[in-house]
Specification:
12% strand, globular, 8 strands, 2 domains, binds flavin mononucleotide, 44% helix, TIM Barrel, alpha/beta
């Protein structure tokens, strides 16, 4: 493996709604580490302009002790933008990330998330209005466009007019959702346009992949990883150590992490065990990929209808399946 000493970089955990909440972040940091910054899933105000208790709880300082968390917001009305920033400033945060990447039609059709990417004038107007009124530093996470990749270069040019801490590029357009691959050639093409620090995000899958990207883009000092770190929670630390070998007791460590995660959600649950099992199934979509028979593993959890069946699936998987 290439020595990458000449291009040190930071790693962050991508925000993944429903997965990377404070419980996961805290236990992830405790069991695996390797992540310099955790981007929290986006906050969005409801029709009355408020945040839910669940959203607020995720960012309370007491729930995020010892972890570098960067909250994210989704908004297209300056008032909402400013009120979420003011809540976050009150909690002690100094930086916020603006979501211009969420690809789902329910969001984009309302001109939110990636839906702002074909509205450059509105995006600039929002920045004009909010930046003088917020005390937080701002970074932006964006896709390459809505229907195609045409928005990215012009958006980066617009962003050059504003004081941003960084721009995080996930080079896929919204209509792709998560299909295909992030377009690294497009990333290479647009990188010189930005006068801000740029972070690369999209499909980083292994130690080699990340180190190779860092060699290819020596000016990029921050890489963000989402799904691959959920599937293989050892990945971030492996990248930091430039070593893809797993510890001999990796499966045991993972089992302990899983047990702590499950116990933590059970103890917080207001909706009963069934809801927790559904929540855990969301994790197993990713965790299953760390086992050789991933389809079989996932199916076992999908069939589990109650806590006993879930626990039986856990015992069987950890006893019989190979961790990769
Ligand atoms: C289920 C799911 C939920 C996501 N939620 C968010 C989110 O709240 N905010 C955001 O900026 N991106 C969100 N993303 C996108 C990821 O942060 C990331 O940009 C994307 O997964 C690409 O990175 P990866 O290939 O390393 O996973 C989400 C992705 C998935 C699959």
């Amino acid at each position: 493996m290439k020595n990458n000493q000449s291009h040190p970089f930071e790693l962050s955990l991508a925000p993944i709604q429903g997965i990377t909440d404070y419980t996961f972040r805290k236990l992830f940091e405790q069991y695996f580490g390797g992540i310099n910054k955790y981007f929290a899933p986006y906050l969005r105000v409801d029709s009355k302009g408020g945040l839910s208790n669940k959203q607020m709880r995720d960012l309370l300082p007491g729930n995020n002790v010892g972890i570098h968390v960067i909250p994210q917001i989704m908004a297209n009305r300056p008032h909402d933008f400013i009120s979420m920033c003011s809540f976050l400033a009150d909690q002690g945060y100094t930086e916020v990330n603006w979501n211009l990447g969420c690809p789902y039609p329910m969001i984009t059709n309302r001109g939110l998330g990636a839906g702002l990417l074909d509205k450059p004038e509105l995006t600039a107007q929002i920045l004009d209005e909010v930046l003088p009124k917020i005390s937080l530093n701002l970074s932006i996470k964006l896709r390459s466009g809505v229907y195609n990749e045409n928005a990215l270069a012009s958006m980066l040019q617009i962003f050059n007019n504003y004081p941003l801490t960084e721009v995080i590029i996930h080079p896929r357009y919204a209509k792709q959702l998560y299909r295909g691959m992030a377009n690294r050639n497009l990333f290479a093409e647009v990188l010189p346009i930005s006068t801000h620090p740029v972070c690369y995000n999209g499909d980083i899958a292994s130690v080699e992949d990340c180190l190779q990207l860092s060699e290819q883009f020596p000016t990029v000092k921050h890489f963000m990883i989402g799904r691959a770190v959920i599937s293989n929670p050892f990945l971030a630390a492996q990248i930091q150590q430039k070593n893809s070998n797993l510890a001999f007791d990796a499966k045991k460590q993972f089992a302990e992490f899983h047990a702590a995660l499950f116990a933590s959600y059970l103890s917080q649950s207001e909706g009963g065990d069934k809801q927790v099992i559904l929540k855990m199934l969301g994790f197993w979509e990713y965790f299953a990929l760390s086992f050789t028979n991933s389809d079989k593993v996932y199916k076992k959890f999908r069939k589990a209808k109650n806590k006993n069946e879930y626990q039986a699936a856990i015992s069987e998987v950890f006893a019989n399946e190979t961790f990769i």
